[in-house]
From TrEMBL:
Entries under InterPro entries matching the protein: ASCH_domain (IPR007374), DUF984 (IPR009326), PUA-like_sf (IPR015947)
Domain called ASCH: residue spans: 12-138
Name of the protein: ASCH domain-containing protein
UniProt organism field: Streptomyces cinereoruber
């Protein structure tokens, strides 16, 4: 999607095996939601996504593999994450506790702490999240 009507990138995790798994889950229809930290948006001075917005799903090689459309956006504290979200993440979580443990592991990882500029960053129940619900509107290439 290059040119004057280029779509902004839809990035999941950091490039590597996790992103590859998440992109595959989006393309298979298993993943219909993703969760980020509100702090990430603030640190990058990025506006929150809006319903109807379309973005290009990017794989680990930087290729556009699909166009996704935002169907719902929620801003909520971590403690309010529910089973609907855990299941929609498409990562095989069977409970909110599993989902939270997996996400805390990611958010407490070195790459995330470096991206946030805070080597001691820790989430808790009050940490604000941005949940994006989406659907694939066009597959551009298989991941």
């Amino acid at each position: 999607m290059t040119g004057p009507h280029a779509l902004k990138p839809f990035l999941l995790a950091f490039p590597g095996p996790l992103r590859d798994r998440l992109v595959a889950a989006v393309l298979s229809g298993e993943k219909t939601a993703t969760t980020g930290l509100l702090l990430e948006y603030e640190a990058e001075k990025e506006e929150l996504p809006e319903v109807g917005e379309r973005s290009a799903l990017i794989d680990s090689d930087g290729r556009e593999v699909a166009v996704v459309e935002i169907t719902e956006v929620q801003v909520l504290p971590l403690r309010d994450a529910d089973l609907r979200l855990a299941l929609a993440e498409g990562e095989g979580y069977r409970s909110v506790a599993e989902w939270r443990a997996g996400h805390e592991n990611f958010w407490h990882g070195e790459e995330m702490r470096e991206a946030l500029g805070d080597p001691g960053f820790v989430v808790d129940g009050d940490t604000m999240l941005v949940v994006e619900w989406f659907r694939v509107v066009e597959v551009l290439r298989e991941a």
